[in-house]
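Handout, page 2. Input:
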Amino acid sequence: MRYVLDTHVFLWLDNNSAKLSSTVYKLIDDPDNILSVSLASVWEIQIKHQLGRLELRKPLGELVREQQIVNRILLLPIELTHILRLADLPHHHGDPFDRLIIAQAMSLDLPIITHDPMFASYEVQTMW
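Output:
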């Protein structure tokens, strides 16, 4: 099964955080599952880091490459269809990065691994 990781899940995974649920750890540990992180998440992390609102344990490029190897994370590109899908989304969530992740997941019919309760306001499957 394919999944999209929300930004905070990607960061918590990188830090081996106890904030991740046991369900999430099972999904991540299952070698049959394909895990993706949106380039929107990478963009969001870079912006927050540059603004001093997020500390990273290593440069972002190294962190992403390491997660690609260690946890088999694939990068989910942003396509024009994903951006255009934003027009169909109700405005339940104001975060533009989260809205783009939701649009990507809806376009590709993928569940999102997230702890954000606002995602459930959309017609997208969430896991936690």
